[in-house]
């Protein structure tokens, strides 16, 4: 039996929930000795750093992707304490990183979505500087607060075209080489040669505003429009296996958007082992002020269809057989 009318029918329009939403998929199935034993403590650092480095325009969604009871309890308590943490989604099984991200993106309306692994420490200034890159480059679709000198040729055809014909490209000094070394340590493998620690490729918008060309995706901010080009069906892989390329990297590039990073490093990848410096550094960051205005540039642009076709050609040309010519033009070392 039903009595009366549902009052929600009178106000069925859903308004934008926020300007900038952060999505953190979490998979910590146990806290026993092994790969995940420090997972909860590192997750606490991640979320603590988020609350201390963002303003009130941000909202945070956490997808609990089959984590253990202790992690689920921690997240629920934090959800009840923090207003900006406005969404928690629970799955009893791990549905994969991409599917967790899409569950949030397809059910919310924001201008920007920051996608972050659960082992990232955010530093003061990351939000302002990422949003500033979107302001300076309306064609940007993906921006990371962590520059990488090796990412300039990874799904950056549209970015290359922009740098060649709409802006400028230059090979410039890395502002924080130590941050690149710390990223190497966090993944437990050698990634950069000495030349990568000295210089990276920079895109100039012809107005003096710059950003690093390319970025990784353990933490990155995307425009809502990028997801319009993603596959509609769910991913059939939990992590890696090309899922992030298929659902994030390729849609951004073929959609005609730029892939960029901030010049300075504004986040650290922590890995799965808790180290003393992480808590000490995070506490220092929390002490800093995070009062600032959000500067999201609402209007976006992208390369047109003709430019996108040309971008593929120039990408194959300069990042393929003729990469030596590209390096010669921009004074990039051969070993780079």
UniProtKB/TrEMBL annotation:
Task: Please name the InterPro entries in this protein's record.
Answer: Glyco_trans_2-like (IPR001173), Nucleotide-diphossugar_trans (IPR029044)
Q: Which organism is it from?
A: Algoriphagus hitonicola
Transmembrane segments in this chain: where? Answer: none
What is the protein name stated in its UniProt record? Glycosyl transferase family 2
Q: Which Pfam families does the protein's record reference?
A: Glycos_transf_2
Please state every residue range assigned to the domain named Glycosyltransferase 2-like: 41-158
Provide a Gene Ontology MF annotation, just one: transferase activity
Gene3D superfamilies the record matches: Spore Coat Polysaccharide Biosynthesis Protein SpsA, Chain A (3.90.550.10)
Keywords for this protein: Transferase
């Amino acid at each position: 039996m039903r009595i009366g009318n549902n009052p929600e029918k009178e106000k069925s329009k859903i308004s934008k929930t926020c300007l900038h939403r952060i999505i953190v998929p979490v998979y910590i199935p146990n806290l026993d000795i092994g790969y995940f034993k420090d997972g909860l403590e590192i997750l606490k650092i991640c979320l603590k750093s988020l609350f201390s480095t963002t303003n009130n325009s941000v909202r945070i969604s956490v997808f609990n992707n089959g984590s253990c009871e202790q992690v689920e309890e921690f997240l629920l308590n934090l959800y009840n304490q923090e207003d900006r943490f406005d969404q928690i989604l629970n799955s009893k099984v791990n549905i994969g990183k991409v599917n967790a991200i899409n569950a949030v993106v397809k059910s919310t309306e924001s201008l920007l979505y920051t996608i972050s692994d659960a082992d990232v420490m955010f530093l003061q200034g990351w939000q302002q500087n990422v949003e500033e890159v979107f302001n300076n480059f309306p064609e940007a679709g993906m921006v990371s607060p962590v520059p990488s000198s090796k990412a300039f040729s990874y799904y950056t055809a549209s970015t290359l075209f922009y740098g060649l014909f709409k802006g400028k490209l230059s090979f410039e000094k890395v502002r924080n080489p130590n941050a690149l070394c710390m990223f190497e340590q966090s993944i437990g493998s050698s990634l950069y040669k000495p030349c990568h620690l000295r210089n990276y490729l920079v895109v100039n918008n012809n107005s003096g505003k710059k950003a690093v060309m390319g970025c990784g995706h353990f933490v990155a901010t995307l425009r809502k429009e990028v997801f319009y080009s993603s596959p509609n069906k769910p991913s059939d892989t939990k992590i890696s296996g090309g899922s992030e390329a298929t659902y994030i990297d390729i849609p951004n590039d073929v959609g005609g958007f730029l892939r960029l990073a901030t010049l300075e490093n504004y986040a650290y990848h922590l890995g799965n082992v808790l180290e003393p410096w992480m808590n000490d550094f995070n506490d220092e960051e929390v002490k800093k002020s995070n009062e600032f205005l959000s500067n999201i540039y609402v209007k976006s642009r992208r390369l047109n269809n003709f430019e996108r076709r040309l971008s593929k050609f120039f990408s194959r040309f300069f990042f393929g057989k003729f990469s030596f010519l590209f390096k010669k033009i921009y004074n990039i070392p051969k070993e780079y």
